[in-house]
Amino acid sequence: MLDISLRTGGLVAALALLSVSLLACSDARSAAEERSAEAVVNVAVTIVPQKTFVERIAGERAHVQVLVEPGADPHTFDPTPRQVAELNEADVYFMVGEPFEQARLPRIRAVNDRMRIVDVTEQTVEAAQQRKEREQASLAKHETPVGDHDGCGSCGEECKGCGSCGEECKGCGSCGEECKGCGSCGSAARQPVVLHHCPHCGDQDTHTWVSPRLVAEQAKLIAATLSDLDPDGAEVYEANLAEFLAEIEELDREIQSKLADLESRTFFVYHAAWAYFAADYGLTQVAIEVGGQEPNMGDLARITDLAKEANVRTIFIQPQHDARQAKTIADEIGATVHTIDPLDPDWTANMRRVADALSESLDGQAAQ
Ligand SMILES: [Zn+2]
Questions:
Q1: What is the pLDDT of residues 344-356, one digit of tens each?
Q2: Residue 76 Cα, ligand 1 centroid: separation in angstroms?
Q3: Which of 107, 116, 93 is nearest to 43 (CA)?
Q4: Is the pTM of this model over 0.90?
Q5: Are 229 and 330 a contacting pair, CB within 8 Å?
Q6: How far apart are CA 183 and CA 198, in angstroms?
Q7: Span from the CA of 75 to the centroid of ligand 1 (angstroms)
Q8: Strand ordering across the sheet containing 314-317
Q9: With 200 labelled, which of 102, 271, 276, 331 sits at a CA distance of 20 to 30 A?
Q10: Ligand 1 centre distance from Cα of residue 120 (Å)
Q11: Which residues are near ligand 1, the ion (C-beta closer than 5 Å)?
Q12: Distance 272 CA to ligand 1 centre (A)
């Protein structure tokens, strides 16, 4: 009797288990069907411009969750519980390396173990570096290195840093400038950037999306990742990628010619978001923030002197930060403050606006 009831109990339990797993199966299936009606891939990104990039590549095939909404500062952001819940549905997260990502993503992945995490900053900077090395190697094959080489770098020889070739600094350090080691110039070689203050000192500069050349690498990374997750969409992703890359190339050429011939090549910003842009176009960024923090009185005095020396006419601020100190310096040296936004959703038009603003400010800002 006891034996039978136990067996019956076991059978009931087995049936209950079976029906639970059948239910779970149909739940998963209906969730997948629901997603595929509109979007095939659930993508999560950190900042608004990344949403623009993913949508350029994926069109309707991706649902994009952006964590840092307009107006918020990515460096001090923390996601809401609702955002964390939505992240549990993500197929892929394109991270940029902000502190909240470092803190949150491992825990989110513990819940959502099928979510892929792609480190955009690390991978795009590396891809750009490899591309540069390949280009230099192929140039070296066509140019004969001379004994007393002057350092244009194109032959692959180490730059001697005398500057007499008229080429922009390749970062060998031999010019005597102290390298700040922040890596924010985009080079693994840690190029010296005059008075550059990295907001994430000792860490990688995360603002790669302000460089059209690095955005080209990011676009390739997005297309490859989406094609891998959704092979049926690969053709769409490839076609959209090709179109976007052509647009970026045109933008890059346009900005290059806009910024080619300026009286001064040094610009002052409150927050050091533009180092990759500066590196692409041979400009130097000087930031008022020191190590991502408000400067002290000594820093302020030093930066004010520098700005006077460089005859700075504009100090660039961004809408996410309190820029009272930028205004104080501007007032003292008779300059104006101008807002440029690294997080604008209309990325292409915004890059043009930024180039125009820099060109207007630096042309006529004769360095003394
Ligand atoms: Zn920033």
A1: 999 999 999 999 9
A2: 10
A3: 93
A4: no
A5: no
A6: 8
A7: 6
A8: 284-287, 266-269, 314-317, 336-339
A9: 331
A10: 15
A11: 273
A12: 6
